[in-house]
Structure formats: C-alpha cells, structure tokens
Amino acid sequence: QRQAYALLANLMSGNSGGPLLDVQGHYAGMVFGVATDKKNVAYALSYREIEPVLQKGMRRVKECLRGGVFR
Question: Which residues have CB under 8 Å from 29's CB, separation 6+?
C-alpha cells in the first residue's frame, strides 16, 4: 500500500511530477494526478514513498558522471 496525499488544490494534469511543498517550503512529495470526478482534488506521493527511487536515480547519475557517459 502506498502512502499518498489527497489535496484540495487547483492543479491540472500537466502538474504531474511537480513538487509538493509543506508550509515551511520543504519538499514533502510529488504530485502524480488529479481527480476526474471531483473538482480541485489532486493526489501526491509522499517523500517517504519516492525517496528510494530518487536515491537510486542519483546513484545512477553519479555512476554515469564517473564513467564519463555525460562528457
């Protein structure tokens, strides 16, 4: 089961992948969709859910940089 937030927000489908920030401006998650049957309802995955994927991606980027893939 995933940890997700239901948001009362005016977001559009193009906002998917955008950051969800808390009131202090800290990264809290990533927007992934909007409700099609309710107005101003969107959904976001929590940082806890996506952090392992972000960490894996960062490791891959570092490996590629060390290996000269991006040079």
Answer: 5, 19, 20, 44, 45, 46, 47, 49, 50
With a CB cutoff of 8 Å and minimum separation 6, the contacts of 24 are: none
CA 69, CA 9: separation in Å to the nearest integer? 40
- The answer for residues whose C-beta is within 8 angstroms of residue 63's C-beta and 6 or more apart is none
pLDDT in tens, 16-53: 999 999 999 999 999 999 988 999 999 999 999 999 99
Let me know the angle formed at the C-alpha of 44 by 40 and 49, rounded to the nearest 5 degrees.
170
pTM: 0.73
